[in-house]
Design brief:
By secondary structure, this protein is mostly helical. About 50% of the residues lie in helices and about 0% in strands. The protein has one domain. About 0% of the residues are buried.
């Protein structure tokens, strides 16, 4: 008998592009812990790419004031402000 397994991953959509980024070890550890927690809480252990895409989708919905941003730290602070307003 063949079981009908549901795919837990979202369908691969057209228009996705592969992008290489550099992230610190702490971020990799965070991704690992988050994925592990998802599975522990009766969900699925999603890949980093899914998590990053979700974070980007959330940020795209924010009204981020980027006027005068000169550094990565400046941008982080602006994103945090936009999240607090949201």
């Amino acid at each position: 008998m063949v079981k009908d397994y549901k795919r837990f991953r979202s369908e691969v959509r057209k228009g996705l592009h592969k992008v290489t980024i550099t992230i610190p070890d702490e971020a990799l550890d965070w991704f690992y812990k988050l994925s592990k927690m998802m599975k522990k809480k009766k969900g699925y252990k999603l890949p980093r790419s899914y998590i990053i895409r979700s974070l980007i989708n959330v940020c795209m919905k924010l009204d981020i004031n980027v006027e005068g941003v000169r550094t990565e730290k400046d941008l982080e602070e602006r994103i945090l402000r936009a999240i607090k307003k949201y």
